[in-house]
Amino acid sequence: xxxxxxxxxxxxxxxxxxxxxxxxxxxxxxxxxxxxxxxxxxxxxxxxxxxxxxxxxxxxxxxxxxxxxxxxxxxxxxxxxxxxxxxxxxxxxxxxxxxxxxxxxxxxxxxxxxxxxxxxxxxxxxxxxxxxxxxxxxxxxxxxxxxxxxxxxxxxxxxxx
Length: 161
Fold this sequence. Notes:
Strand content: 35-45%
Number of strands: 12
Largest sheet: 7 strands, antiparallel
Helix content: 10-25%
CATH class: Mainly Beta
Oligomer: single chain
CATH superfamily: Electron Transport, Fmn-binding Protein, Chain A
């Protein structure tokens, strides 16, 4: 017996997270999505994990290209989070009009983010409706002077100072 999906959804709303955008490119197509499932796996060697719904365009691009980028959003980037969370539909260009840059792999990363990770997929695990992608971090950078965009109980939050 497992928990009711709606009970799990309500309980998970109590988990405060940063906001991350996962991006990927393949055959001239770039796309991305907002995720809350992002974590460090190992420092030596440097590895991170993302979880992507299998029915998304970003999932298909990561699966095919074997590369992904992660941009951690900073305060004031709520509109970008909303855009990549679905305000702009999956079949449209969510990167249109945004300033991007690349590090090593050519995957677009979003300017103004708190931190950026450029990754190569080294392992995948299918679980339910999602795939867990473990990535070797090929390059990482951060802007520690900014504050993170936080998400808790269906709303954006700020750090108390």
